[in-house]
Amino acid sequence: MEKMKLKLLYADLKSDIEVIEKELETALNSSSHLLNDASLHLLQAGGKRIRPVFVLLSAKMGRYEIDRVKHIAVPLELIHMASLVHDDVIDDSEMRRGERTVKAQWNNRVAMYTGDFIFARALEHVTVIEHPRVHQILARTMVEIVNGEVIQIEDKFRLDQNIKDYFRRIKRKTALLIESSCELGAIVGEVEPENVRRLKRYGYFVGMSFQIVDDILDFTATDKELGKPAGSDLLQGNITLPALLLKDDPHVRPYIDKAIEGTLTEEERKELLKLVRKSNAILEAAKISDKYLKKALKEVEALPPHPMKKKLRDIALFMGKRKF
Amino acid sequence: MDATTIGQAVGQLKTYILDTIQHNTLLKYTGTPLLNEKQLFFLLLPKLNEEAWTEETTTSAMTVGIVHASLAEHDRIHETDATSKEQQLTVLSGDYYSGRYYQLLAQTGNVELIRKLSEAIVDRCEHEITVYEREGRYFQDWVKALSVIETALIERFFYVYRFDSYLEVMQEALTAARLNRELEALIKGEPSVYVNCMQFSLGEQPVGEALRQEISRRKQIVTAILEASTYNEALKQAIVDIVS
């Protein structure tokens, strides 16, 4: 159902998304069979391709040429993919999107080379665009994403953190790349500077909402929907918004403590999920996500009349209300 | 120009790089970034030989060093277990240095070098991963892989700045130096994965002997280049020291 909705949302962009998919495949072509296999393994596992879609939509607000815009859309997806390959090494993850991760299928070193290879391909691709500002924004984004991951490791297993710490983390972890997708798409589409800034803020708010929903789904979706065990974030020591909102609940806290200590049994994991799902924390987290979503929609409203405004609104709403 | 001046120039470049990529958390858990002074020397060779060199060239040379540091961090990741905090942050230190090199070049608007270094990283990854694709390869393929690992990035830097005349001596000397290191590790009874791959390709033939022959051949080439060159004596001696 959700996949169908997404397909409908992307319908107008179908031919351009096909161009992006082909370019992604070409970009990952390597003289090494192993690098080819590892990269394509990741590509074929799919994904929502939200970053390229935000690039396309933002560029459509201005002068749109797919042959130019693809040099932003493809690298952003590649950077996202490269960071996932390395993240799986950091998190020691066996599964992603229902498929074995590169590190699980081969090993950590293969995952490191694959991530570096994809990252380099991303930069090769983006250098077709000579605009220095594009590179400055992208480079800053990449540095900040890593800074966010460093903070995430420092915050791991720390229950004394607050919601501000969480927002600081997800801003860098997710929102920045979506923000940059919108900003860079708009710059390459030569959108008016004032509207570039609006689209940038739109991307940031959507990104924040997207990550909060992702963190909610980690507790509420099934293992099958997630392609990994529900509650994985907490099991890995990542204290996300629902856990933060529940950490002082006397019924839930013992389970959280056990998850952090790594002693939570399978039965207890299921019990924890039940408690979280019926708690207010999920509702409260969803409300916070909605606040960001509203801010995103407000930015769209402020944009000049354009057929793409409806699409920007619809995609934001889908991201903020999705069920997988 | 004497040995002290050369040492100071290399030391200064190293300090610039370390200052540029300093990150307190990463430094605390993963230590000082790995920089190979032999590579730094060759990055500076055109400058030391009084070629036209600006502040922007120094920044570019720094970025090459930063990419080397980035990839060296990722070479420290264990094949099967990277779950310790130190290993997790080692993954991120490599990624952070990568971002920083891109940021520096983006600030100077050097898009051509970004493209060329990216090509070199691709090339390097494609050669590094061959250790997991051993079948059907020859001893010389492994030497080539090590040569690419040591020199591909500097090669692209020379290409962008038209320092092509330094290419051959850099490639031969850095490859010889790397093979020397591999031989020393073998003698100590700690052969690297590359030496194991070389032995796999050679079958019965002893890898130590093959390495010695290869090193000797490359040293002869370096000697011939130096004899024909107009480098001053200190530079010549520095290169001889690198390969011995």
TrEMBL record, chain A:
List keywords of the entry alphabetically.
Coiled coil, Magnesium, Metal-binding, Transferase
**Example GO biological process term?**
isoprenoid biosynthetic process
Which molecular function terms from Gene Ontology are attached? heptaprenyl diphosphate synthase activity; metal ion binding
One Pfam entry for this protein is polyprenyl_synt
The entry's family comment says:
Belongs to the FPP/GGPP synthase family.
Oligomeric form and interacting partners: Heterodimer of component I and II.
Q: What is this protein called?
A: Heptaprenyl diphosphate synthase component 2
Look up and give the organism this protein is from: Lysinibacillus odysseyi 34hs-1 = NBRC 100172
UniProtKB/TrEMBL annotation, chain B:
Q: Name one GO biological process term.
A: menaquinone biosynthetic process
List the SUPFAM superfamilies hit by this protein, alphabetically.
Terpenoid synthases
Q: What is this protein called?
A: Heptaprenyl diphosphate synthase
- Membrane spanning residue stretches: none
> Which top-level group of life is the source organism from?
Bacteria
Return the Pfam families for the record: HEPPP_synt_1
